[in-house]
Amino acid sequence: MFADFSLPLLLTGFAIAAALVVAASIKATRLADIIADRTKLGEAMAGGLLLGGATSLSGVVVSVTAAHGGDASFAVSNAVGGIAAQTLFLAVADLLYKRVNLEHAAAEPANLFQAVMLLILLSMPVAAMAGPDIAYFGVSPVSLVMFLGYLWGVKLSASVGESPMWRPVETSDTRLDEPDDDNEPDAPVTKPLLIFAALVAVMGLSGWVISQIAGEFITRYGMSSSLVGALVTAVITSLPELVTTIVAVRRGALQLAVGGIIGGNTFDTLFLVFSDVAYRDGSIFQAAGDTDLYWLATGMLMTAILLGGLILRQRQGPARIGIESVLLIAVYACAVAVELAA
Fold first, then answer.
1. Do 178 and 156 touch, CB atoms closer than 8 A?
2. What gap in Å lies between CA 146 and CA 282, rounded to an integer?
3. 140: left (phi > 0), else alpha (psi -120 to 50), else beta?
4. Domain-embedded: residue 226
5. Rounded to two decimals, what is the model's pTM?
6. Residue 139 maps to a domain
């Protein structure tokens, strides 16, 4: 479809699609906060399920489209590169939240559990890549385990949010998850849900356009699939997470901000499951390259650092942000440097 487009037209289409994703995500953040209050779902769970899933949709479309076209490296690197980029966005949000370390203020058991679940899900593709080449109908058994593990984890996350067995120590800087006065918590939730669904559709369509144009760049200019996936489409399709995180922080919905990133990353592991189904030449894990595994390891390392920061709850670190944010920036910068030097 885009093969006859000139370079300026390709770049213009790419920019328009990215702008639509960002604009839709800004509106979706506000709606997710309203839905959280009206359904009594809570900011952490709304961020992880509604906002995280919605803002990840464009990335899902990119990975699945690439996998269906036979480019396993593009599909995998887009998924795991997005996880690394989105984790970095929490460090950016921490820089903007001047009062105290964001991970201290947004203490929430559900976010901690989702971070643990994310590490578990990320470990499974590593086993699939390093293990024997086993696939049934072209799909690795690991994909089924990941999908069922995600569903089970969501159920457990809900129970952690509803009936936590422990609570973080409350300090003067802890921001509690309380309904906003202007959100009308007793009002009907149907209209916000319908608008939210329409915005999700816009983000999904934009993701398809981004995937098609990125694929054209790879084919036309001989660019590395891993490079384009991890540092171009992954970052572009992750921009909604950056926008929603910043908007949520400015609104004071800190649990929503942290939950949106962690929940979005957890949902992003399903990119690999869907891509494995779409990839028809066998298990996508066996077809992925060493660079894709490198970005997977980077995502795991950054998630572990974030989890440590959520547990440590340092009030103030160097440069007025938490030490975990400093480490997240350093790890991602090193990963990008290694990718560009490869």
1. no
2. 17
3. beta
4. yes
5. 0.82
6. yes
Q: What is the pLDDT of residue 122?
A: 96
Give 171-211 as a DSSP string: -TT-------GGG-TTS-SHHHHHHHHHHHHHHHHHHHHHH
Averages of pLDDT over runs of 10 residues in the chain (342 residues) are 80 89 80 73 59 75 91 94 92 78 72 91 95 93 96 86 73 55 63 85 86 85 86 85 80 75 87 95 93 94 92 67 87 93 78
How far, in Å, CA of 129 to CA of 12, rounded? 37
Reference 143, options 135, 154, 132, 153; nearest CA is: 135
Strand-pairing partners, residue 155, are: none
Kindly state whether residue 235 falls inside one of the protein's structural domains.
yes
Which CATH number covers residue 91? Answer: 1.20.1420.30
pLDDT at residue 78 in the model: 92
76 inside domain: yes
Q: Total structural domains in the chain? A: 1
Structural tokens at position 105: 């203020």
Rounded CA-CA distance 305/65 in Å is 31
196-226 confidence digits (pLDDT tens) = 888 888 888 888 888 888 888 888 888 888 8
Could you tell me what percentage of the chain is helix, strand and coil, using 3-state DSSP and rounding each to the nearest 5?
80, 0, 20
What domain range includes position 155? 7-165+185-341
> For residue 124, what are its two tokens?
């499974």
Task: Show the tokens assigned to 104.
Answer: 């201290």
Where do we find the tokens 């370390």?
101
Angle between helices 254-278 and 141-162 (to 10 degrees): 160
Nearest to 207 by CA among 11, 57, 104, 40: 57
d(CA 156, CA 113): 8
Residue 204 has a CB neighbour count (10 Å cut-off) of: 16
Give the separation between CA 79 and CA 265, rounded to whole angstroms. Answer: 9
- Judge residue 158's burial from the number of C-beta atoms within 10 Å of its C-beta, 0-12 exposed, 13-18 middle, 19 or more buried: middle
Q: Among residues 215, 230, 228, which one has the least CA distance to residue 85?
A: 230
> Which residue, 63, 52, 112, is CA-closest to 86?
52
